[in-house]
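Regression test attached.
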Amino acid sequence: MAIQEVALTTGRASSISLVDRLHGLVVTVDHKKLGLMYIGTALIYLVVAGLMAVAMRLQLAVPVNTILEPDVFNRFFTMHGTSMVFLVGMPIVAGLGNYLVPLMIGARDMAFPRLNAFGYWMFVFGGLLLYFSYLGAPGLAGHGSAPDIGWFAYAPLTGRAFSRGNSTDYWILSLLMTSVGSTVSAINVIATAVALRCPGMKLMRMPLFVWLMIVVNFMILLALPALSAAQIMLLIDRYLGGHFFDTQAGGSAVIWQHFFWIFGHPEVYILIIPAFACVSEVVPVFSRKPIFGYPVMVGATVMIGLISTSVWAHHMFSVGMTSVGNTFFAISTFTVAVPTGIKIFNWLGTMYGGRIRFDLPMLFCIAFLFQFLIAGLTGMMLGVAPLNWQLTDSYFVVAHFHYTLVGGFLFGIFAGFYYWYPKAVGRLLNRRLGLWHFWLFVIGFHVTFDTMHFSGLLGMPRRIFTYDLGRGWDTLNFVTTLGALLQAVAILLFAINVVRSAKKGKLAGNDPWDAWTLEWTTSSPPPDYNFATTPSVRSRRPLWDLKHPEDPDWQYE
Amino acid sequence: MRIRHHKILRTLLLFAFAFACVVFAGHVEPVLGNTDGVTSIFRPLSQPAQEIKETSFLVLAICAVIFVVVAGLLVYALVRFRHRAGDEASEPPQVYGSNQIELAWTVLPILIVFVLILVTTRTIADIQNRKAPSTAVQATVVGHQWWWEIRYPELGIVTANELHVPASDGRGSQPTFLKLQSADVAHSFWVPQLAGKTDVIPNRENLMWIEPTKPGTYLGNCAEYCGTQHARMLLRVVVHPPDEFERWAKEQQQSASADSSAPEGRKVFFANSCVNCHTISGTSAQGKFGPDLTHLMSRAVLASGAAPNTTDNLRLWIRDPQKIKLGCLMPNMQLTDEEVNQVVAYLQTLK
Amino acid sequence: MINDASLPLTLEASDWKLPSSRKVAIVCLILTETGLFSIFVAAYLFYLGKSLTGPTPSEVLETPIIPTICLLGSSLTIMLAERALRRENRRPFQLWWAITILLAVVFMGATAIEWHRLITVHHLTISTNLFGTTFYSLVGLHASHVIVGLCLLTLVLVFSLRGLVTPAQHQRIEMVSWYWHFVDAIWVIVFTVVYVIGR
């Protein structure tokens, strides 16, 4: 046992058999291994769901296309959306939190290591259950039966009458499982950040990343139950004859939408705030200045968390609410834009007056800033309810949320990857491959999603497997598809980089980026125990204090 | 090595930018210009779409200004404060924040938000609070999987997939007020050049109105995913000059034409279970599950836009509906080729 | 080279007091469960008076006074049990703990009797109408949490009878009791919504 652990830690695994190494992963409770497992599994789902997107784009590249049958297409967009949110986004949130929080606060592991492992395996089995639906009833002879209800599964399409067979049940049960995983991970991260900080690390001395993780995980605790409750209600409808969403018995289809979006809107902030967290760590280091307005950043994030619980029905502007209801949710939507804008300004303030290095983590942050700015502005447009009546459920809104999720979330996460991969693996990612990844992805992203806005403005609704000639959508869709292919190549290059650099990358050392938070004091990768002795800190940037003893932060904070 | 790398990437970026400009320029025209069949939200020919467009221009202007200012500052910071050779030794001044600056860039967004709230509130009230004048045409739209049932209760008309309305020209306002109902799942009624979309939800009646000013045919789509053939649940709104609308209404109010030139087809139709789903007024066919066929030949398309209404398509549709609309709920009646031709001939008498 | 050996050693360790991770975890669990219950309560309130058919709440519901007193009383007895544990009185601890379990079992029994009456006499099931669906879901969700609580309580009693529970572990026992208080607090809300507001 001891030999295995030492070998796994130091990377000299040649003497350990593959079976033993896999066994080590199955039984591990080490937050670093589990964090990497979360992220690794998420990246696999990213590729799978991404290939579905490429297939859909090929189908939509020309009008009246016949590459994909309607049912296959409908299952693809359902599985693509569900996978990207629950099997890519959420596990990356969990993985980053589980890997980095203990290292950043000077702790040895998470508060509940076994709970950590439990959460990961719930996520894995939930994901497998969702994809098993392709084989499940009625099986391949019926061309498989993956859910085809859309990732937000509006009632009453999901009722027994309209969703025959078990595909909707796979959707419900797999997500109930992954939600358990997300919930326990949230409890664990909060407990760790609150209870295991090293001496001297008051709440306002934590890295901003940890603060944002606390906010995110509180939001998970409050938002996920709404989805789980609605899904349990749907199960009761489908199996026990309940009438929660049964319009024939006086039930309401709209109440599903309310419950779903009470989860769904905070969920998108749950996805984007970890990207904010990565950007908040990378931008200061590569601008060579502390984050501008740390207390304001904390406050703004908390405000975003709170206000985001009151905006949900801006996804439902076309449902027929009263003018009072529509006005309220428009107002709350504009309000949440204020703290979000403040964060962008603070990142700008961090760069201003700095000495900006254009290493790969920073390049992804810069792209993030431009793209998230645009995404926020199209979000404001969508908050104007009457304009929303034209734009919702069209490709404009599809472009908007891909701008936030790909242009915002994915770019922010890539920044984090390029920044922390050397810490986790011990070797830097290859810069040349990284630059190709970056530029191809940026160009592909803009070719696809800038163009997509116009399809929506021209009246193209979403979730259609084909469209007719003469609507003005032909060229736009073709161009959109080209961008998707570019992005696919970029992701392939990234995957190659990740795998190759693990063995052949330049050795990173403890602190390749000249950074300032506690994780950069450990070796790369860190030892099992993280820190030989529990550190203690006097400021937000303990390594700055050590490197600049004549000008330490604690004299100014 | 690094410099050459940047040159290549810069060239690549310029090409991409040029390409983007070309794409953009190619599509400003359909978005803002005049091309048939194109349903741009910026080419409204009706209220409330017109008011929405005006509001959107103001909002777009505000967003454009914000973008130019913030992106401009971003670019400036990147250029002015980039790391230069020789900067290795020193770190820049470590500024932690500034309360005045934070206040400034909090107050300014709040003011912008305030303007947006005012604009939005007014537009919502204008559109949602309108009451139907006595001259309004009243129609009920019922969404089905995957077609539209259209009823005019005051006029005694039932039709499918095409909503006919009068244009509201200078002679006095004649909007059309729609009640939206669903027979099964959630749909959404969206004709971009006439109005924003309103969802069509079972056990809930939604209201909307349109007031088109120019005669013509306006295309739309179902805009809420409703199952397999959501993509082919198209809408056509035919706007007539007022007297033409009267004429159309009178024709639609008639029972099925007494044209007896296709008796064999009539027999096939009534012998099979077609009558269980379809209504032909004035006959014993009173089925309510499928579209009303009384004036089938007055419609331009079949199967809610899946195919133009031609003899060949009608034949194909009846022989095997799945060939035109895979997954649709109309069964294949397993008719022989001869029976199909006869039925088509009969249906073509339903003008 | 900067490594973790350069960091100053534990400075104010004795002054550095943080909340217990267990307490934080239980509070988080209670928060998320409250969220879950809120949605079922919202559905219950939303659907009041909207059933198209069948028995209405005022026709069939009887206020469960005794079961409520039992359940709320069990919060009291569990607090007495904890006090006994802290004072190292093992037998009183086990006694009060057992009474807590007993009160909970009485509550569950009364629920079972009430459901039996509703189903056989009034023909109200989960599929009868909107009231049936929302009633059984909400009360059932609470009952399932009582059952989980009963399992935890029984486990603790078994451990204690085998001599495995010591005063030093009072904090773990306290976490179980916090969960139990949460279950009781939820009952107050469910009771108010179903038997007071709903009728």
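Expected vs. actual: identical. DSSP finds six helices and no strands in chain C.
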